[in-house]
Amino acid sequence: MINLKVKSLERSPSLPEEIVASLTGALHKGELRPGDRLPSETALANEFGVARTVVREAISQLKYDGVVQSRVGVGAFIAQPQERTAFRISPACFQKRRELLKLLRLRNGVVIEVAADAAVARSNRDIVRMEAILKQMREAISDRERGAERHFEAERQLIHTIAKVADNEHALNFIMLIDGQIAEKLRSVAVKNTKATELATVAIEEQARLVEAIKRGDPAAARDKAREHYDNAAQRLADRADLADV
Amino acid sequence: MINLKVKSLERSPSLPEEIVASLTGALHKGELRPGDRLPSETALANEFGVARTVVREAISQLKYDGVVQSRVGVGAFIAQPQERTAFRISPACFQKRRELLKLLRLRNGVVIEVAADAAVARSNRDIVRMEAILKQMREAISDRERGAERHFEAERQLIHTIAKVADNEHALNFIMLIDGQIAEKLRSVAVKNTKATELATVAIEEQARLVEAIKRGDPAAARDKAREHYDNAAQRLADRADLADV
DNA sequence: ACTATCAGGTTGTCAGACAGGTTGCCGACA
DNA sequence: TGTCGGCAACCTGTCTGACAACCTGATAGT
């Protein structure tokens, strides 16, 4: 009777997490608006039936994002939207096809910019590294077992390399955030794509053209090729049947 | 003796904030690496000379970002970079010219994408709204007193409108995050620009061309015009003398 | 009418406690 | 010697109560 944690993946949310979700939900539904004062910590503790320490942990998370600000002796208030200090995405967005496409549009905008920068800043060693990654992609095609996984990983490596070549750490962080969440979601659903290999071949050639443009040191071409590949890749991803239609 | 809170702006950081800063600093310097186990909460409390609740609030913030993960009975661990769930920027980045330019490149990549989307999704009412914002910009020029401020606000409005037209809430959030932080920094330094009005005139015409492209429903042109304006604006901002050179 | 004072509420921090969970050691047993 | 069971130590998550610093609004006194 080996249950090997099918259940443990859907980990039970902690108490502070639930309170954060409740508060952000109220904020999103408009029940809580910028400038409003939150109930006092003791009041919230009573309302949720938890200790004040739990409420404090929840509020401290919201403060960390600049969603609420608190003043000693007065209370905690919902901050103005422009006061936010972090960008974060609800995991639910990665399930809905429309939302996923919008997120990918964001990501691709960033990727395209750094691709152009990379075309300016690239060194010979960078080119060697990128071409090695392309080679890994090509090899992954013939791996019937873990080919998709290896290809996915190589794509990730290529973007990371491009961002590093462009010397833009923030872009790398941003791209990794979105890619990480997408990968998380893809892992949790069945990863089956009948036309995988032929799509992969197309994708690799697109990326090869991108690397070529970077190698030539042509920012405009790099932009074009990056747009071509990553917009296509976004569409291919969104076309997958395992995403909910909304 | 009216001191009107010159000091209170540089608010003293709270204890949990300091611990977060210390831990993220250690992470950034490589003293703490993904997979490492953090000292236990009591150990950290002793080390920092604070109560465990303070340490817990700090760690709860890091958990919220997916920077650390904790397991009952075991401890707290530094998560893998791809496990992050939030994008956040150190305020220091907005002071250094190089970093600021990189952040603006990010932002502009996103803006350019949504501008193209807006050119597809725009309605007549959207156009009216955008042209009204352009008009406000032109009027702001003759306001010698608060002209710069009004112009800045109108620019912000235009971007927000474009993002809303493109129906991309995430892009709006992302742009607002970066703009908000930049505005925060600009407010704290002297805002003086001798050539302000002539630069503003140029900027307004750039944006007018962008709105025109959106009005025509031409995504490619919208992209070009958006790139032209926002790249120029980034350069103009970075040219300001009140930024540290690094 | 104006001002000084004060009581009550609120956040920030501290100290201690306990439940539930995990790890690793250590001894019993085969 | 090798294996297994149990136990002690430790860790996180939560709860409780307390106190200092602070702000607000009412109250009382002038």
Automatic annotation (TrEMBL), chains A, B:
Domain HTH gntR-type: 13-81
UniProt entry tagged with the keyword Ribosomal protein: no
GO MF term list: DNA binding; DNA-binding transcription factor activity
InterPro entries documented for this protein: GntR_C, TF_FadR/GntR_C, Tscrpt_reg_HTH_GntR, WH-like_DNA-bd_sf, WH_DNA-bd_sf
Keywords linked to the UniProt accession: DNA-binding, Transcription, Transcription regulation
Keyword Translocase belongs to the record: no
SUPFAM superfamilies for this protein: GntR ligand-binding domain-like, Winged helix' DNA-binding domain
Superkingdom classification of source: Bacteria
PANTHER family with a match to the protein in the record: TRANSCRIPTIONAL REGULATOR, GNTR FAMILY (PTHR43537), UXU OPERON TRANSCRIPTIONAL REGULATOR (PTHR43537:SF5)
Full protein name: HTH gntR-type domain-containing protein
Naturally occurring in which organism (per UniProt): Bradyrhizobium jicamae
